[in-house]
Amino acid sequence: MNLNIYNTATRKKEIFEPQEPDTVKMYVCGPTVYNLVHIGNARPVVVFDTLFRILRYLYKDVVYARNITDIDDKIMKAAAENGEQISVLAARYAAEYDRDMAQLNALQPSIVPYATEHVGQMIAMTEKLVSKGHAYAAQGHVLFAVKSMADYGRLSNRSLDDMLDGARVEVAPYKKYAGDFVLWKPSAENEPGWDSPWGRGRPGWHLECSAMIETHLGNTIDIHGGGRDLVFPHHENELAQSECAHGGETYVRYWMHNGYVNIDGEKMSKSLGNFRTVRELLKKYSGEVIRFALLSAQYRSELDFSADLLEQSKSSLDSLYGALAKISEEQVPEPSLLESSAGFKALLDDLNTPMAVSELHQLAKQINKADDVKEVLQAKALMLALGDLMGVLQEDPETWFKGDSSEDSAWIEELIAARQQAKVDKQYARADEIREELNAKGIVLEDSKDGTTWRKA
RNA sequence: GGCGCGAUAGCAAAGCGGUUAUGCACUGGAUUGCAAAUCCACGUAGGCCGGUUCGACUCCGGCUCGCGCCUCCA
């Protein structure tokens, strides 16, 4: 019963073994809070939340940290634009992010560190890097000297020469070497800043994660996750800073990166403007549908996001919940039952969620065919247990189909009763009229031998 | 220029060197007063060209096309 993880650093699938038995330390890069997040930002959250759920099942202690970047030039720009305090704007969007992610059934991480609360540690790490000869101060900046690290570039598998070959940016005059990156930069009077040995300034982007990991999780962590676009430069530079600051100690044992969410075959990104916010999608689809859509492909492959995908996800969930709705009893599955299931094994194989979903459907079919009571109960228990690991199917089926509006359903019941009477009276035209009336309002009626029930379309 | 990923049936998406993936949609049937839900039936899919093999969607090589990173980005 091994968990297999594809490690970006080795470009291979590996058996996962935490550094300390029973304890897993995981860190995932969170958002820079200056606007609402888009569905591409949500993918790592859902993917690593799923991993978090699996890890919690497998290990006694799982410490999962996901940061909030609340100091950044983009935040400064957005705050300046609407004449707002940076901290106010950041706090607002951090709260919006929380709200959206909760809708996606993402559990709260164990730790949510904020960058601005770790500036002291960032300065300390920078000083350490300067004193060890890995960084230098120049014109109020402090830069990391990439040439001071022998194997810089190993995570993203590129050499310094190759990188600079394709460079599309002008080299800042204070850099000794074109590939050097900023640890600390000066702030103007009207910009937020912190006092430091190099004057008033603020941290470079990569530094915060290194400092927060060091503070909360230690020098070496088991898993570091994020989107593919973070491999270079963000994670490469984090690795450089941390390992150089810690005398070469391993920074991360397993690097994991999720593939992009695409729109029309192209990467969704804020700069391209082709993004869909989670908030916008939540107006039309439940968080669970969105989550299910994000899990419909294995996390490392690209995922083309479309209305069609959401519709298919909705239909699939309807059919899974439909099976669950058929049985009222619940039972907890034997661990052996879950652990020997194909879906569980699939999840342990580098989070093969499509295959796990496939088993959910097979279990639903088993329930629908309903010949043996014990078998049916087991199938339901397994569905719920697998669903729990993926963060789906945990809602009460009745709520799933009817929504939470129990108080305004009386009129539906009245119409159903009226239709029932019409049927008894053989007034089928009237009965169909009522069905149509409800249909028009998005209510679907389902007759069965036990009477008529309804659900939202 | 360097590094990397992908191409599976209408759509989405997996495993696997030889035996039905799975879902959504469509069509036919059962069921129903009519529906819905459900069940049954139905798709030789695997970019192109070679090679290895008794046998390749699956391994190897080439080609074509698409995408990404090398700049802020999940």
Concise summary:
This protein is an alpha/beta fold and 457 residues long.
Describe the 3D structure:
Helix content is 45%, strand content 15%. The chain is an alpha/beta fold and 457 residues long. The chain folds into three domains: 19-261, HUPs (Rossmann fold, 3-Layer(aba) Sandwich), CATH 3.40.50; 315-399, Four Helix Bundle (Hemerythrin (Met), subunit A) (Up-down Bundle); 405-456, no CATH class. It has a four-stranded parallel sheet, covered by helices on one side. Strand 11 and strand 12 (266-267) form a beta hairpin.
What is the terminal-to-terminal distance? 41 Å
Strand order of the largest sheet: 4-3-9-10
Oligomeric description of these chains: single chain
| General form | elongated
By CATH, the architecture of the largest domain is named 3-Layer(aba) Sandwich
Q: Beta-strand level of the residues, as a percent range?
A: 15-25%
Helix percent reads 40-55%
State the secondary-structure class. alpha/beta
Instruction: Report the CATH topology name of the largest domain.
Output: Rossmann fold
From the alpha carbons, calculate the radius of gyration and give it in angstroms. 26 Å
Task: Report the CATH superfamily of the largest domain.
Answer: HUPs
Low-confidence stretches: none
| Mean pLDDT over the full residue set | 93
Count of helical regions? 17
Q: Kindly provide the name of the CATH class of the largest domain.
A: Alpha Beta
User: How many domains make up the coordinates?
Assistant: 3
What is the count of β-strands? 15
